[in-house]
Amino acid sequence: MRDPLSKTVTSLAPSGIRRFFDMASTMEDVISLGVGEPDFDTPWHIREEGIYSLEKGRTFYTSNAGLMELRSSICGYLKRRFDLDYDAKEVFVTVGGSEAIDLACRVMLDPGDEVIIPEPCYVSYYPCVVLAGGVPVRLPLDVEDEFKLTPEKLLSVLTDRTKMVVLPFPNNPTGAVMDREDLIKIADIVKERDLFVLSDEIYGELTYGSRHVSIASLPGMKERTVLINGFSKAFAMTGWRLGYAAAPENILSQMIKVHQYVIMCAPTTSQYAAIEAMQHGDADVEKMRESYDERRRFLVHELREMGLDCFMPRGAFYVFPSIKSLGMTSEDFAMELLEKQRVAVVPGTAFGDCGEGFLRISYAYSIENLKIALEKIKIFVDTKR
Q1: Could you tell me which residues are beta bridge partners of residue 66?
Q2: Which of 244, 230, 216, 257 is nearest to 107 (CA)?
Q3: Cβ(166)–Cβ(160) under 8 Å?
Q4: Which of 122, 145, 140, 273 has the alpha carbon at shortest distance from 198?
Q5: What is the pLDDT of residues 113-133, one digit of tens each?
Q6: How far apart are CA 196 and CA 185, in angstroms?
């Protein structure tokens, strides 16, 4: 019998995040700090809208692009929160932000087109580029640069085949952000070299000490940017599986065309709940952000107290401490910590080879759980000195 499987698919490695999560789920009494899922319930008024939509019998398909009321509400939200001007025809609703990433790669890349992927970063960009026939170009970022994408680094990997640059900021796993001044320098290069940007802004609401700036808000960049966002992180709506893309109409129409064939539309119940989130959820986001900020400062302080260098994240809800002083690989540290102390973290190599020597620890968990986990991590670290 011939091999039934695609060599492109079988060559892809499984997600390193899910691997540790799956291992932890088979063990008893594990404190998992590995998955980026808020510990908050979806705010009640948002859940109530979802329930009400079911009670009203709104169980039909929506248009492929999503409910017009939701798309209009997203436009209002983007203007209110990030000073972005989009029309409803430039926005469409997806099954999570990951679907939007996949669709953007599929409709924008031809075989051989190169995509710059700054790392460490979320695990989906590389496989989405490969599955679309593109060529992913890994670009390691440095803690000395606060894990930002610098003009010098970007220029060092550009070729005549480069078509797209991924901007994964605020960043998972490092918590790095790009300020307006940083983005202006990148935007100048993008325009000069006639490139496009895939800007994943799913953590845009979760920044500390400064307001998130989208590269799409800069002059000449809206027409070159596919903006990815969603409801999972800021509104604690992971299981609702809802995201969206905002992009020039010529790109968006092709994304919707693929979406028509493989998805049809995002879940109707989730869309009605999301309208409520867009229109009346700002206070909920602020409350959750304040809690994350408290956890962020606590976690970094405690890790530094136990002798681990730790970059102070300015966004998202992860810290990315260095364990290089212990002489262990990230994989070995994470595996032994799980086995001996029943604490699950993610090795930095799950986010690219340049993550070696680091760990990702999520603070989307209560202070109480973080305290218990940190006590166990300290015990483990002390045995390795």
Answers
A1: none
A2: 257
A3: no
A4: 122
A5: 999 999 999 999 999 999 999
A6: 15
- Per the listing, tokens 């997806």 go with 94
Helix axes 330-341, 16-25, angle to 10 degrees: 10
Tokens 């390795």 map to which residue?
384
Question: What end-to-end distance do the CA atoms of the chain give, in Å?
Answer: 54
Task: Give 220-270 as a 3 state SS string.
Answer: CCHHHEEEEEECCCCCCCHHHCCEEEECCHHHHHHHHHHHHHHCCCCCHHH
Judge whether 86 and 78 are in contact, CB under 8 Å: yes
Rounded Cα distance, 158 and 164, in Å: 10
51, amino acid identity: I
Tokens of 377: 């991590």
What the block records as the tokens of 376 is 């166990």
Give residue for tokens 């680094």: 153
Mean pLDDT on 157-180: 98
* pLDDT band, very low/low/confident/very high, at 35 (cuts 50, 70, 90): confident
Q: Give yes or no for a contact between 314 and 177, defined as CB atoms under 8 angstroms apart.
A: yes
Say if CB 52 and CB 272 are below 8 A apart: yes
CA distance 329 to 335: 10
Q: Compute the distance between CA of residue 185 and CA of residue 220 in angstroms, rounded to an integer.
A: 13
Q: What is the pLDDT of residues 66-83, one digit of tens each?
A: 999 999 999 999 999 999
Q: By the 8 A CB rule, do 334 and 349 touch?
A: no
- Taking the C-alpha atoms of residue 287 and residue 267, their distance in angstroms, rounded to an integer, is 27
Taking the whole predicted model, whether its pTM rises above 0.90 is answered as yes
Mean pLDDT calculated for residue range 342-349:
94
Residue pLDDT, tens place only, 182-218: 999 999 999 999 999 999 999 999 999 999 999 999 9
* Average pLDDT of the chain, as a whole number: 95
Structure tokens at 6: 């695609």
Task: Give residue 262's identity as a one-letter amino acid code.
Answer: V
